Structure formats: C-alpha cells, structure tokens
C-alpha cells in the first residue's frame, strides 16, 4: 500500500506541483509532499552520461545512446540550465532506472512513491510497430510524468500539423496557440497551456493507482485514469466531467 507520495517540481514549465499534490492528497489516503526538481536535488557526476546513454537516436531504431564527449557536455549543461534543453527524446525506462538509483536509500520502498515532473520528453519502444512512442508518463518507481509529453505524445488533429507547417513556411517559426486554436477544429493542448496543471492531475493519480493496486490505465474514456492516444481524448478525460468512471469515482471520491 502506498502511504507516501513525493512529487518533484518542474520549474521551467507551467506545471504547479503544489496544486497537483493538494488534489492528490484529497483523493487518496497518502501523505503527499513536494520537493524541488528531482534532476537538481539528486544530480551527480554520472547523471549526464546516464541521460546521454538514454537518448533515442532514431524513431525507428531500438538502440539508444550517444556518449561522445560533446553529447555528455550537452547533458551537463541541460541539467544545470534546463530551460536550454529540448529537442531530444529519452528512453523512459532507462531514465526511470537512472533516477531510481538516486532516490535516497531509505525511501525506495513501494510504500513511498516518487513522481518527478520532468521537463524532458520520454518515450517507450513499441515492439508491435518497431518505433518509439512519446509518453506522458512511465509507471513504476519512480513514476515519470513528462510535462512536454503532455503536449507532444497524444496526437493532435491532422489540421493542426497542416496549419503549423503552413505558418512555418510563411513566417519561419511556430504559430502562436491563439492562431492554431482559431484555425484548427478540435480541442488540444500546446506548450505552456494554462490547462497543464489540471490535465496532469490524472496522470499523477495513475502513477499512484498503479503502484497501489497493480492496475494500469482505465478503459473508460471519461475517466481520469484513462490513457488516450489523441489530444481530444486527453481533454475529455482530464478536463471534462465526470472526473471518474463509476468504479474509480467510488475509490477516489472526495468528501462533500
């Protein structure tokens, strides 16, 4: 049984870890605390190389890792100045292994879940189709929740990508969110979306639910414990009523 959860901030993102922690504590029996960025709290001399080894090299190649000096130096700078990092996908399971080793020794039990909110994009390899897939979260201990993954992993409406490409050809940069929302039919989240914190709550709860019960995602598309593959599904599951399916509403209902 999970009776403690430690959530770690992602200060370069708009995610509010304290708000997520309060929401989670209201719905579970766990004591939830918040600490500063995991990659700052527990960084050591070996962590940059671990990230370099976890780099995805190609969307269609299972092999990961590039530990050339320049890449390791990049990872050192990215740890020290996370706002300068980006454009890299990391093997979520390798990152999970690296961070697990750095959890304080007395806190590694499965009764104490650690949930780093990450400013990195993580993925997992799909044996069924031979390619990497970006993920919002990677369940286990610690459970990784990728803030940029929230925007990038679930697919947006096809028109979004067409408008993005058209705008880039005309102006040379990405269009503002307001432009995309006006031009594209359908609901989706984009970088620094003001709904980020609200949307992440269900993904953090999924991490707790998995470690506490052994169950992964819910099949009900209206439940916060669902794992939608498209952005409209994320909006539906995380930002619309009801919060939960009947089964999980019974487990995670709040006191009136």
How would you summarize what this structure contains?
41% of the residues lie in helices and 14% in strands.
Outline the structure in words.
- The protein is an alpha/beta fold.
- It has one domain: Collagenase (Catalytic Domain).
- It is 41% helix and 14% strand.
- It has eleven helices and eight strands.
- The strands form two sheets. The chain has a five-stranded mixed beta sheet. It has a three-stranded mixed beta sheet with strand order 3-5-6.
- β5 and β6 form a beta hairpin.
- α1 packs across α9.
- The two termini are 25 Å apart.
Write the layout of secondary structure elements.
Elements: E1 4-8, H1 17-27, E2 31-35, H2 38-41, H3 47-53, H4 69-80, E3 89-91, H5 92-100, E4 112-118, E5 121-126, E6 131-135, E7 137-138, E8 144-146, H6 147-152, H7 158-171, H8 177-183, H9 196-213, H10 231-239, H11 246-252
Parallel strand pairs: 1-2, 1-4, 3-5, 4-8
Antiparallel strand pairs: 5-6, 7-8
Helix pairs in contact: 1-9, 3-4, 9-10
Tag the structure with descriptive keywords:
256 residues; Collagenase (Catalytic Domain); three-stranded mixed sheet; globular
CATH homologous superfamily grouping = Collagenase (Catalytic Domain)
The total of helices stands at 11
Largest sheet: 5 strands, mixed
CATH-assigned fold name: Collagenase (Catalytic Domain)
Shape: globular
Using only C-alpha atoms, the radius of gyration works out to 18 Å
Question: Can you give the mean pLDDT?
Answer: 93
Q: Which class best fits the helix and strand makeup? A: alpha/beta
Please tell me the CATH architecture by its name: 3-Layer(aba) Sandwich
Query: How many structural domains does the protein architecture include?
Result: 1
CATH class: Alpha Beta
How far apart are the first and last residues' alpha carbons, in Å? Answer: 25 Å
Proportion of strand residues: 5-15%
Query: How many beta-strand elements?
Result: 8
Q: Low-confidence parts lasting 5 or more residues at pLDDT below 50?
A: none
State the share of residues found in helices, binned by percent. Answer: 40-55%
Query: Helices and strands, in N-to-C order?
Result: EHEHHHEHEEEEEHHHHHH
């Amino acid at each position: 049984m999970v009776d403690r959860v430690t959530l770690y901030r992602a200060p370069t993102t708009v995610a509010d870890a304290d708000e997520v922690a309060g929401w989670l504590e209201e719905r579970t029996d766990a004591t939830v605390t918040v600490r500063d960025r995991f990659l700052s709290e527990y960084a050591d001399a070996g962590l940059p190389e671990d990230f370099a080894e976890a780099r995805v090299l190609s969307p269609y190649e299972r092999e990961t890792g590039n530990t050339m000096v320049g890449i390791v130096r990049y990872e050192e700078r990215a740890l020290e100045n996370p706002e300068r990092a980006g454009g890299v996908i990391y093997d979520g399971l390798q990152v999970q292994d690296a961070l697990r080793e750095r959890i304080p020794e007395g806190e590694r039990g499965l009764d104490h879940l650690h949930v780093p909110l990450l400013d990195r994009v993580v993925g997992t390899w799909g044996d069924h189709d031979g390619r990497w897939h970006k993920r919002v979260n990677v369940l286990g201990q610690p459970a990784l929740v990728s803030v940029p993954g929230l925007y990038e992993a679930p697919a947006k409406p096809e028109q979004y990508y067409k408008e993005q490409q058209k705008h880039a050809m005309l102006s040379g940069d990405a269009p503002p969110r307001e432009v995309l929302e006006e031009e594209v039919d359908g609901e989706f989240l984009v970088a620094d979306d003001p709904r980020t914190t609200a949307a992440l709550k269900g993904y953090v709860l999924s991490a707790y639910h998995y470690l506490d019960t052994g169950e992964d995602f819910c099949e009900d598309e209206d439940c916060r414990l669902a794992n939608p593959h498209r952005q409209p599904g994320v909006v539906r599951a995380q930002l619309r009523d009801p919060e939960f399916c009947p089964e999980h509403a019974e487990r995670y209902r709040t006191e009136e």
